[in-house]
Structures are given as structure tokens and as C-alpha cells.
Design brief:
Number of helices: 8
CATH superfamily: Histone deacetylase domain
Strand order of the largest sheet: 1-6-5-2-3-4
CATH class: Alpha Beta
Number of domains: 1
Oligomer: single chain
Structural class: alpha/beta
Radius of gyration: 18 Å
Length: 304
């Protein structure tokens, strides 16, 4: 039995399990709000496709949407929250859930919706009402790798966040944009994810006293998911991820849990030289977003 049109299966206890994921997002938000931590990491979260009234895209409840609603709604602690989503799939449940909210700046990097579920996230979708101009979609062509992602991310994100001046930043750290993921056709290496985390850590220090929440998200190759989320945890704790071989006990547990062969080494955080689409294609996306938002972004040459 499915909870939507065919993507989100039900199973015994699914409601309780999904509720615990929402609880993790709320606990992360509360930990940062009261000052127990400046950064919180919720790797099980990031279920960004569920809508207010329905499940969608493997997501029963939208934990990040609930956290954003609590953060910015009546009695919420924040007037301005920046939400950045780097999952290969467009975070439609979050974007449309806050499409008319001036309290949420939503910046979403994803594979072009004309080539991937859920088919949304066009550059022309920039919000409405109080949220007009505060929703930024960056639809990337299939094949985009580290150079294309870095060019777009470093031009768009710092510019919009510095203009908006958020009081807290939330990152949805979906890893299905990594090369080798079976559902998407982006070609990021570990470098793109560390770039996003490092950039937002620095912007959080600059703009909002370090307040940053990071969730997980999509990812359908267990070898990538386990290593990339572990590397994210190291970065958030102020440590550089280890290099070289992974622990033997961890590899044995991985193979028991997944039934697949465990990876041997930590991911390499150096950018991969794999061929991106034409730099012109990335420039065209950023130029179109600039025109839609009426914002001037720095040139690609100045952010390398």
C-alpha cells in the first residue's frame, strides 16, 4: 500500500518512525535556539518532498518544513530563516509550503526538473506575496559536477544570504547529487558537499552567531551516503574528515546491514576533474536567476 501515487510505501510503524524524524528536527532547532549548541546535525532528516496535506517522494512527514514552521510561525524565535537545499531533487514540499512567506529565504540547487522528479523548481518560480523574490531555484543540467556546482553556489548563496541577513541557516544535505547515485544524473564528488558545508559554516559565523542546522536528505547509494554524511559530521564539529582506510569493524557492520560490499576508504575531498556541461550552461542559469530576482551576482571569475 502506498501513501501517495506510488512512491511512498507504508509499513507497520511508519507513522511512528516518521514522527521520530520530525522530533529530531525539532530537537535540533531547540538545541540551537537555547544555546546548547551553535550547530546541530540531523542526518536522518531532510524529507523535503512531503506537503502539508500529503506524503510524497519517499517522505511521509516533512521534518524540515515542520521545523521552519515552528521557527517562523506564531511564537517562533526567528523572523528570518535561510533554507539551502543541495539535494539532486527539488525540495518542493518546503518551497511551496513557504512560497508566500517573507520569513523564509529558500535557495534550492537541483537537477533540472525537466529531467528528474518532481519536475518542479524552474528558475522563474521566485515566490509570491510576502515571499516574492525570496525563493531561488538553481536548476542544473544533468552532468553538472564540482566546477559547475561551485560556480553557481559561490555566486548565488553568499550574495542572497548577505542581503537577507538570516538569524539562522538550515541546510538540506541530500547526497544524491554524488556521481554513482542511481536516481540522479549529477556528478558531484565529495568536494561539492564539503564546499557547501564549509561555506555555510562561515556565513553562519558572519551573519547569525554561528547558528546552523544541517539535515540529511536523498541518497540511494549506501556507500556514498554513509561516508558523505560522516564527513559532514566531522566538518560541523570543527574537524577535517580522516583520510585513508575506513575502520575494519565499521566495514564489517556495513556489509551486514546493507548486504553489499563496503567502501575501503574515506572520500577524497579534492574536486574531481570530471567534465562538466559547458560553463556557458551554468552561466545561463545564474544569469536567468539574476534577471528573475533583480539581483546582480558576482562573475564566475571572482569566486574561484
Amino acid at each position: 500500500m502506498f501513501l501517495d501515487s506510488g512512491d511512498t510505501p507504508s509499513f507497520p510503524g511508519c507513522g511512528a518512525a516518521a514522527s521520530r524524524i520530525v522530533g529530531g528536527a525539532i530537537a535540533s532547532l531547540e538545541s540551537v535556539r537555547v544555546g546548547r549548541a551553535r550547530r546541530a546535525f540531523h542526518p536522518a532528516g531532510g524529507l523535503h518532498h512531503a506537503h502539508r496535506s500529503r506524503a510524497a517522494g519517499f517522505c511521509i512527514f516533512n521534518d524540515v518544513g515542520v521545523a521552519l514552521a515552528l521557527a517562523t510561525g506564531p511564537g517562533g524565535a526567528y523572523r528570518r530563516v535561510a533554507y539551502v537545499d543541495i539535494d539532486a531533487h527539488h525540495g518542493d514540499g518546503v518551497m511551496y509550503g513557504f512560497f508566500d512567506s517573507g520569513r523564509v529565504l529558500d535557495i534550492d540547487f537541483h537537477q533540472d526538473g525537466r529531467t528528474l522528479f518532481p519536475g518542479t523548481g524552474a528558475v522563474e518560480e521566485t515566490g509570491q506575496g510576502d515571499g516574492a523574490g525570496l525563493k531561488a531555484n538553481v536548476p542544473l543540467p544533468p552532468g553538472t559536477g564540482d566546477r559547475g556546482f561551485a560556480s553557481a553556489f559561490l555566486r548565488v548563496v553568499p550574495t542572497l544570504l548577505r542581503s537577507y541577513r538570516p538569524e539562522i541557516i538550515v541546510l538540506q544535505h541530500g547526497v544524491d547529487g554524488h556521481f554513482g547515485d542511481p536516481l540522479a544524473r549529477l556528478r558531484y564528488s565529495a568536494s561539492s558537499f564539503s564546499l557547501a558545508v564549509g561555506t555555510l559554516m562561515a556565513l553562519a559565523e558572519e551573519l547569525c552567531q554561528g547558528r546552523l542546522i544541517v539535515t540529511g536528505g536523498g541518497g540511494y547509494n549506501p556507500r556514498n551516503v554513509a561516508r558523505l554524511l560522516a564527513a559532514c559530521g566531522f566538518l560541523l564539529s570543527g574537524q577535517y574528515p580522516p583520510e585513508g582506510a575506513l575502520p575494519g569493524a565499521w566495514r564489517a557492520r556495513f556489509e551486514v546491514e546493507t548486504g553489499g560490499r563496503a567502501p575501503a576508504n574515506w572520500p577524497n575531498l579534492r574536486p574531481a576533474p570530471a567534465g562538466d556541461p559547458s560553463p556557458r550552461a551554468i552561466r545561463n542559469v545564474v544569469r536567468a536567476l539574476s534577471e528573475e530576482l533583480g539581483v546582480k551576482f558576482p562573475s564566475a571569475r571572482t569566486v574561484r
